[in-house]
Amino acid sequence: MIVETNHMIPVTRLQRELTKKLREISETEEPLYVLKNNEVNFVILPAKKFETFSRIEELLEHYEIADMIEERLKDYNQAANVPWTDIKKKYALED
Question: Is the pTM for the entire model greater than 0.85?
Answer without folding.
Answer: no
